[in-house]
Amino acid sequence: MPKKKTILVAPLHWGLGHATRCVPIIRALLAHNFNVLLASDGGALLLLQKEFPELESIELPSYNIKYPKKGSQFKWKILLKLPQIKKTMEAEKRIVKQLVKAGKIQGIISDNRFGVRNKAVPSAFITHQLNVLTGSTTAFTSKMHQRIIKKFDVCWVPDVEDAIINLSGKLGHLKQPRFPIKYIGILSRMEKKEAQKTTDILVLLSGPEPQRTILEEMLKKCLKKSEKKIVMVCGIVESEQKWTDFENIKMVNFMKSDELENAINQSEIVISRSGYTTIMDLTVLEKKAFFIPTPGQYEQEYLAKRLKNLGIVPSCKQEKFELKKLDQIKVYKGLKTMAHQPVNYSELFALFERE
Predict the structure, then answer these.
(1) Could you tell me if residue 151 is inside a domain?
(2) Fewest 10 Å CB contacts: which of 11, 43, 103, 211?
């Protein structure tokens, strides 16, 4: 019998979305008789280690992207960080080169980690952002991102190809792509289950600091006036799970996939950022939600606005949120699975079968 191939799966650590959307891919790789080597840093790596304690993992250098307190400065902060991002990419490339040379990996799946690739083995890049929105610099940032994607064998976009009914809008759809793109469908580690509703409002916090904490404090202040049953998942992965009470709110630092799936299925409505992975999860679970995009993150602002204009999910700016805004949810359709075809993993993984 041929020796099992090992695939390196490396999500970006920027909030937890990149790591969580790799969970179904890792499960599928294992089911298709591949070995998996996990690679990331910070909370993203910790999350994957908790989900797959039996798998080997390595730590990659951190991109160290922090959000400014003022969202409007975010773009310039990132542009100033470009030299450091380039340095991290070079460090990633060196680590991957050593792994390939030592015969430890035979394929690569990089979720938005630019330097995790090597010409000697098949490499796939996962992103829903073929266009990177940054206001006046969108053309520049999109071109730069596409130039990096081009260096991989294929780009996997977690969305449907349909130009009109899709989740990512102009982020994930190019008029004339210049590199191989494969639309792999909606990617989620969750499954919709009929469950008795035990929570009125489920709050899912995520994303980089300090904005994660700013939103947590603001929502605690607003929601403590409510009579409803509220659970807040703080999105801080630590070695132990900790539950605490704040007034009428039950708070937990993090949940593993199966717990979170139950919590969302058992909730009436969800309040969260409009991060793409969260949107995919809530679509598969067909939830009613309210979005508060991360200030200054054009992509989240665009996704929230698009879903609001389509009459699917209401949203507002962080500083404008108040309890009564949740009443708007009733008149919106809520997220429903669009032509939800299961991801064809055999077809995707054919990439790694080539000699």
Answers:
(1) yes
(2) 103
